[in-house]
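Dear H.,

Thanks for agreeing to be a second pair of eyes. The structure we're designing against is below in C-alpha cell form, covering all 349 positions.
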C-alpha cells in the first residue's frame, strides 16, 4: 500500500510503497477514506513523542471502512464504516472498565505507538471496544476530525469542565482543536471568546460561533489577560471567564488563560507542550482554579458528540479549508515548522 513514511525525525517524509498490514487477533484493518493533518502529527514527526519508533507512518484521526478483521473481533465486520478515538484502550484494565479508555496505561495510538492513517490502510487494536460506527450519510469531512480534535475538545468542555449553557468560555489558540472547542462551546449554548495572534484564525472563529475575539499581538501576559476579562465583562461576567481552554501548547498562552479566569474557574489544557512549562501555581491556589487535562475520549462516550453532528448543530465540515492528496502531505507537514494554517486540513489517500 502507499503511505507517508519517514525513517529520520524532522526530515521530509516520502510517499512510498510499504507492506499492507494484517489485523491482530483482537483488531481490524481499515481502508482509509480520509484522514487529518494535526499539530500532534507534527510533534510525532519532530521527535517530541517518546512512543514513536522509526521508521514510522503518521496519522491518528480518520474515517474509513473495515477491510479485514482478526479472529477475536465480534462486533464489527468488513464493510462497516467507522472512526476511532486516537487513544485505543486495552479493554481489560480498571480504567477501561470504568469508561476511561483515554487514560488506559496499556493504550495504543495509531500514528504514535504504531503506524498510522496517512496510508491506504490503518490498524486499530482491540476493535470491539475502540471503534465507533459512523452514519453513511455523514460526509467524511464531518467525521475525520472526531477522532482527535473534536473528541478532545468535546470531552474537555462537556465532561471535564462541565460547561453550562450561558457561561463564558475563552479559547486560547484557534487552530484546529481550538476552533473545534469554539464550535462545541457555541453549540452547547456558551458565550465564546476566541483568543489568538492570527487575525485570520480569529475571523474564522467568529464565523464558527464565537461571540467576541481578542487579538493578543504585542500584548504582555497581563495585558492579554486584562483584555480577555474585559471581553467577558462585555458578555455580562465581571471577573473573567468561567472556563478557559488552552489549545496551542505554549506556556505564555497557558499562563495568560489562568490569569484571565475568575475565582473558582475551570481551565482545560488540551494543547501539547514541546517541553515542560512553568505554571502560575500561586494563582491556581489563591483563586482555587481547577486545572483539567483532556486527552481524547473513549469510544463509548461518542454518541452525544455524534448526535450533535448528525443533527447539524455541530458541523466540523465547515472548518475544512484544505484537502490534500497523499503526495502533497509531506510538504504540508514540514510547513508546520512555520506555524499552522487556519481551519482543518483533510487528506484523501
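And this is the sequence the design step returned. I haven't edited it by hand at all.
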Amino acid at each position: 500500500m502507499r503511505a507517508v513514511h519517514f525513517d529520520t525525525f524532522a526530515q521530509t517524509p516520502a510517499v512510498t510503497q510499504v507492506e499492507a498490514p494484517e489485523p491482530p487477533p483482537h483488531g481490524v484493518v481499515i481502508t482509509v477514506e480520509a484522514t487529518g493533518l494535526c499539530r500532534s502529527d507534527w510533534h510525532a514527526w519532530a521527535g517530541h513523542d517518546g512512543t514513536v519508533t522509526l521508521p514510522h507512518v503518521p496519522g491518528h484521526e480518520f474515517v474509513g471502512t473495515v477491510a479485514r478483521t482478526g479472529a477475536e473481533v465480534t462486533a464489527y465486520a468488513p464493510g462497516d464504516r467507522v472512526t476511532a478515538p486516537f487513544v485505543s484502550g486495552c479493554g481489560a484494565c480498571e480504567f477501561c472498565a470504568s469508561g476511561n479508555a483515554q487514560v488506559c496505561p496499556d493504550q495504543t495510538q495509531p500514528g504514535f505507538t504504531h503506524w498510522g492513517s496517512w496510508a491506504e490502510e490503518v490498524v486499530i487494536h482491540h476493535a470491539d471496544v475502540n471503534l465507533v460506527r459512523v452514519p453513511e450519510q455523514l460526509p467524511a469531512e464531518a467525521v475525520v476530525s472526531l477522532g482527535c480534535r473534536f473528541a478532545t475538545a468535546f470531552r474537555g468542555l462537556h465532561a471535564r469542565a462541565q460547561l453550562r449553557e450561558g457561561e463564558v468560555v475563552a479559547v486560547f489558540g484557534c487552530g484546529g482543536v481550538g476552533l473545534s472547542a469554539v464550535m462545541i462551546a457555541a453549540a452547547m449554548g456558551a458565550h465564546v471568546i476566541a483568543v489568538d495572534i492570527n487575525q485570520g484564525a480569529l475571523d474564522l472563529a467568529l464565523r464558527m460561533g464565537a461571540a467576541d475575539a481578542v487579538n493578543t499581538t504585542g500584548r504582555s501576559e497581563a495585558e492579554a489577560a486584562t483584555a480577555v476579562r474585559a471581553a467577558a465583562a462585555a458578555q455580562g461576567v465581571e471577573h473573567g471567564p468561567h472556563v478557559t481552554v488552552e489549545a496551542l501548547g505554549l506556556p505564555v498562552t497557558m499562563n495568560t488563560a489562568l490569569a484571565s479566569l475568575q475565582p473558582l474557574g475551570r481551565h482545560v489544557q488540551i494543547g501539547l507542550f514541546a517541553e515542560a512549562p512553568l505554571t502560575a501555581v500561586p494563582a491556581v491556589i489563591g483563586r482555587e482554579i481547577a486545572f483539567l487535562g483532556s486527552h481524547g475520549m473513549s469510544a463509548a462516550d461518542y454518541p452525544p458528540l455524534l448526535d450533535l453532528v448528525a443533527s447539524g448543530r455541530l458541523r466540523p465540515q465547515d472548518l475544512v479549508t484544505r484537502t490534500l492528496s497523499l503526495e502533497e502531505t509531506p510538504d504540508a507537514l514540514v510547513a508546520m515548522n512555520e506555524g499552522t494554517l487556519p481551519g482543518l486540513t483533510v487528506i484523501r489517500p
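Two observations from my side: The mean pLDDT is 95. The first strand starts at residue 2 and ends at 5.

Warmly,
E.
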